Amino acid sequence: MRYHHGFASFLLYCFGFVLVTEWIWPVKVLTDTANIWVFIVFLAVSFLLTYLGTPLIWSLAAKGMVIMYLLHWLYFEGSFLQLDWVMVFFQDIQQNIAFIFSANIPEVSNLFRSLLLFILLWLMTYLLHYWLIQRRRILLFFIMTIAYITVLDTFTPYEAANSIVRTVIIGFLCLGVLLFYRMRESEGMDGGFTSFRKWLFPLAVLLSLSVMLGFALPKQAPIWPDPVPYMQGLSSQTEGNQHAAVQRVGYGTDDSRLGGPFTGDSTVVFRTEVESSHYWKVETKDVYTGKGWIQSIQDAEAISFSQNSDTPVSSFAARNTRDKKAETSFVYQLKDYPHIIYPLGVKSIQSDYHAEFKFDPALEKIYSVDDSQSVALPSYSVTFEKAAYQKSDLTSVENASGISRDFMNRYTQLPETIPHRVRELAEEITAGKDNWFDQAKAIEQYLQGSHFSYDTKDVQIPGKNEDYVDQFLFESRRGYCDNFSSSMAALLRSIDIPARWVKGYTAGEFNGSNRNLQLYEITNDNAHSWVEVYFPDAGWVSFEPTPGFSNHVSFQSDEQGKNPAENTEPTPEKDAPKQEAEQPLEKTKTEEDHSSEQIWHNWKGAAERSWKWFAAAGITAAVLVLLLFRFRVKWLPYYYIWRFKRAVNDESFPEAYVILLKQLQRCGLKRNKGQTLREYALMIDKHFSTDEMTMLTVRYEQYLYGTGVEMGSWSEMMELWEYLIKRTIA
C-alpha cells in the first residue's frame, strides 16, 4: 500500500477529513444523536494513523481502543480500566445482532447504533485513503457530498448555507492538489515542496478570489419556489389537518386567506431617519370575509397629486386641530417597491427623483409614478402630523351620531357566517363601558392578556366551515399580528364601532442617531398589521392588540394638555423679540444644513443600495491590478518601446539600458553577484544566440567611464535595444 508523509499528503488527508465531517454534522439536527464531537475525534484519529502509515495490526488496535474508550465514556459509569463493563458491552452486541436478524430494528440499542457509526467512519477513512492516495481521484465523492448537502438543505430543517461553501472550497482545493500529483507522476515532474508551493499558491489565490466574488456579486432570486411548503400544504390537504404550509414573513398583497405558520426573514426593506419612532402604513382593508380581508371597491379611480402638495389621505377629523405636531421622516428603500410607506397623518411627500403620486382611496395606498408607469423611489421624505389625542375627545363618543350610514355600513361590515358568540364575547368584554374609546381599550387589553399566546410556528388555519376570528378567539388562542388585529376589528364591528384592518411595518430596530434624527432599520420581520378605530372628533386612531408591540400613540388627559411642564412647545419669554430677530438667520442656516444633509443622505442611500456592485467593482479592480503586476514581464516591453521610440535625444540611451537590465532580471536572467556588465552581456548573448547585448554594453561602458554619450548613440542602438527587449517577452 502506498503512503506519503509529505505536506501535500497531509493537506489531502485534512481535506478528506473536512469532507467526511460534512456528512456527520447533519446527524445532530436530523436525529436525536448528541455528543457528535466524539465521532469527529475518532475520525481525526483514524486519518492521523492512516497518514502516519501505522502498521495494520497497530492501527487496528489503536482504533479499536479509541472506539471502546469513547463508547465507555458515552454509555458506562466507572473507570475505563475496570473491565466489568466489557461483558455488558459484548452481551449488548450479541442481543442487537439477534434484533437485526429478526428485523426488529426499533429495539436496537443506542450503544450498538453508535458502534455501527464508528465502524462506518472507519470504513470511510479507508475509502478516502484509497481515493486520495491510491487512485488520486475524488470527484465522485465530492459530487456525492454536494448532492447530500443540497438535498438535506432543501427537504429537511438542516441549514447548509455555510456547509456548502466549505465543501466547494475544500473540494476544489483537493481536486487541484490531486491534479498536481497525477501530472507529476505521469510526466516525471519534480515533486519537491517548491514545485508544490508554486502549484498551490495560484490555485488558492484563484479560488479565494472566486469565493469573494461569489459573495460580493448580487444573486438572482430562486427561480423555483421552495418545494417543502408545497409538499406540507399538499399533505395538510390530504390528511385534513388544520395546519397550513409554512410561509415567509413580509409584505404581500393577498390577504384573502390568513393563518398558518411562517418563518422569519431579516432582509432589510428600508431604512429611516425620524424625529420620533412610529408605525409605517402601506394599505388598509375594509371587508372581512371570514377567512381574511379584501377591499370593498375594486379598481377604484386613483387620485393624482404631486410632490409637496397635500396628500388626499384623510387621517384626522377636520375639526380635530388640537395637539398636532408636524414632523418629517426620511425613507431609504432597499426593495424596489412602487408604493410609498407612510405614517398616520401624512401631509406631503418629497423626493429628489422625478415622480408624481397616485392614491388608491379604497386601499389608502399611495403609488409613485413617472409618465403613468409605476416606479420605485430609492429615497423620499414624508411630512406628517403626529397627534397627541385628548381623551375627552375620544371618551365623549358613545354612538354613531354624526356619522353617515354608508360609512358605518362599510366599516362595521361582518360576514353573515360569523358565529354569534363573537358578538357575545365583545359585549362581555365591554360590559360597563359606555363610550367607544373605553370599549376599544377593553378589547385591546383583553387580547393582550394571558388568555392568548403570541406564536409564529404552531399556528392553525381554519377549516372549510370555520371562521378565522372565531377559531382564534375560542379554540387555538395562539397566533401572531394578523390573528390579533383581525379579531379586534371583528369584535369592534360586532358592537357597531367602525374599525378597519391596517398593514405596514413597525418602527423597526433602532440603529443609532444622526444629529437630531433617530436611525431605524426595517426588515421583513417588522411586517405587521394593526387596527384603526374611527372617532368623529378625532378621525382614525391606531390601536395595538398584539402582545409585545407598541404603536407609540399618545393619549392625554385635559390636565396634561394644560400643564406647561407637559407642553412640547416652549413658552414665550421676555426675550421673544430677540428670538424673532434671530429667526431668519437660523432659518437660512437650517436650510443650508438640510441641503448638505440631503446630499449626504442621497450618497449614503446610493451606497447602501449598490454596495454589492461597489464591492464587486473593487474586487475586480484589485484582481486586474494583481494580474497586471503578475504578468508585467509580458506587457511592460511594449510600453517601454512606445516610450523610447518617441525619444530623439541621446540622453535616453543610459535609461533605456538600465530598463533592459531590469527586464532581463524579471524574465529570469539574473545577474550573479560580482559579475561584471561585460560578463553578464556575454551570458545574455549566449542565451539568445546573438551579440547585441555586448554591443549595447560596450556603448554603455563608454558612457560610464568615458566623457558621456556620443552623438547618435541612441539612433544607432535603438534597434538593438528593441530587439533584445522583445526577446524577453518570450
Report what the structure shows:
The protein has 730 residues and is α+β, with helices and mostly antiparallel strands. Among the domains are: 7-216, no CATH class; 395-506 and 525-559, C8orf32 fold (Roll); 631-727, no CATH class. It contains 23 helices and 21 strands. The strands form 6 sheets. Strands 3, 8, 9, 13, 17, 18 and 21 form a 7-stranded mixed β-sheet that branches. Strands 4-16-19-20 form a 4-stranded antiparallel β-sheet, covered by helices on one side. Strand 11 and strand 12 form a beta hairpin. The radius of gyration is 39 Å and the shape is flat. The two termini are 44 Å apart. Mean pLDDT is 81; it is low at 233-244 and 561-595. Residues 571-596 have a biased composition (Basic and acidic residues). Pfam families: TgpA_N (PF11992), Transglut_core (PF01841).
Tags for this model:
730 residues, C8orf32 fold, 4-stranded antiparallel sheet
Task: Describe the structure concisely.
By secondary structure, the chain is of the alpha+beta class. The protein has 23 helices and 21 strands.
Question: How far do the termini sit from each other?
Answer: 44 Å
In terms of DSSP E residues, the strand content is 5-15%
Number of strands: 21
Shape designation: flat
Main pleated sheet = 7 strands, mixed
> Which percent range fits the helix content?
40-55%
Number of helices: 23
User: Roughly what is the average pLDDT, rounded to an integer?
Assistant: 81
Supply the helix-strand structural class: alpha+beta
In angstroms, what is the radius of gyration? 39 Å
